[in-house]
Design a protein that fits this description.
Helix 1 packs across helix 7. The chain is mainly alpha-helical. The chain has a three-stranded antiparallel beta sheet with strand order 2-1-3, with helices on one face. The chain is built from 13 helices and three strands; from the N terminus they run αββααααβαααααααα.
């Protein structure tokens, strides 16, 4: 279903797909920022129930970077074993969330980018299997903790704003071909599910993907989603029937005609009495572009 979108998919993955919500992590000695998009990293400090902070409080307490990397990798292996053998999805999900925050350590360690990527991919696969594709998409778009993805139950892990190094690392991981492929796989699954149930309202995550693709001039993505995009395209066109996009390539009406001439015809007929020159001109332009008048 998804054809030729790899080249444009990287840009889409980099876009935040869903609105941020929820409460953020605790900052050591600072009030938690209000900005929902704030990106965090773990300081290495854990706050105990009595308020006492333990962990990397002094430079001399920093762990050996190589040993820390091995520790994170070993814990990820144990979680994967829990998933494949014990099938303990809920327990594995909680362990993964905690490991994910710990992998996003402010201090660098060997292979940190690969470890964060591997933890995120396991989380995305698990969430997709638990029928939470919207959250899985957000996990793939946000490799480091944010307000939306940092559960309040992990508030004992004291965090602070991520460094420029970690921000660059996140951008690099997010555009990794493995992440892009997984993202498109979930998008294709969402589109297939909506197409199989035409009476069901379009999912918010799919609507966001389509709107972001249109805003970013990534029209191939919308075309490849196919019939699942039709209700959303109709809503977008109906919202401003007097619009006349500068280029026919950018016109959702033209894209709708390319996906389904029947649905486009029905849509135009519903607005046949609209006495607007721009609308009629827009319809004719889209029909000429799609070759409808030649049939």
């Amino acid at each position: 279903m998804i054809r030729g979108v790899r080249a444009v998919g990287i840009g889409l993955v980099l876009t935040s797909l869903l609105a941020f919500a929820g409460s953020g992590p605790t900052q050591s000695g600072k009030a938690a920022p209000d900005a929902a998009s704030k990106v965090f990293a773990w300081t290495g400090v854990t706050r105990q129930p009595n308020g006492v902070e333990v962990g990397i409080l002094l430079p001399s307490q920093r762990p050996d970077p190589a040993e820390y990397a091995r520790e994170i990798r070993a814990e990820l292996g144990q979680i994967q074993l829990k998933l494949s053998v014990e099938r303990d999805f809920q327990g594995a999900q909680a362990d993964l969330e905690r490991l994910w925050v710990r992998a996003a350590l402010q201090d660098p360690y060997p292979g940190q980018d690969r470890l964060i990527l591997d933890v995120v991919l396991v989380r995305a696969n698990l969430l997709a299997e638990l029928s939470s594709p919207d959250t899985a998409l957000q996990v793939l778009a946000e490799m480091l903790p944010r307000k939306s993805l940092y559960p309040s139950k992990l508030g004992d892990l004291v965090c602070e704003p991520a460094s420029a190094r970690l921000m660059e690392l996140e951008a690099r991981i997010t555009s990794d071909p493995v992440v892009v492929d997984k993202h498109l796989e979930i998008v294709a699954s969402l589109a297939s599910n909506v197409a199989a149930e035409p009476s069901r309202a379009a999912s918010p995550e799919l609507e966001t993907i389509i709107r972001d693709a249109l805003n970013g001039h990534r029209y191939d993505i919308v075309k490849d989603i196919g019939s699942a995009a039709i209700p959303i395209l109709e809503q977008i066109i109906e919202r401003d029937l007097g619009a006349f996009p500068q280029s026919v390539d950018q016109d959702p009406l033209q894209i709708l005609m390319g996906i389904s001439e029947r649905r486009a015809r029905e849509f135009v007929l519903r607005h046949i009495d609209l006495d607007r020159y721009q609308w009629r001109k827009r319809v004719v332009r889209a029909m000429l572009y799609q070759g409808v008048l030649q049939n």
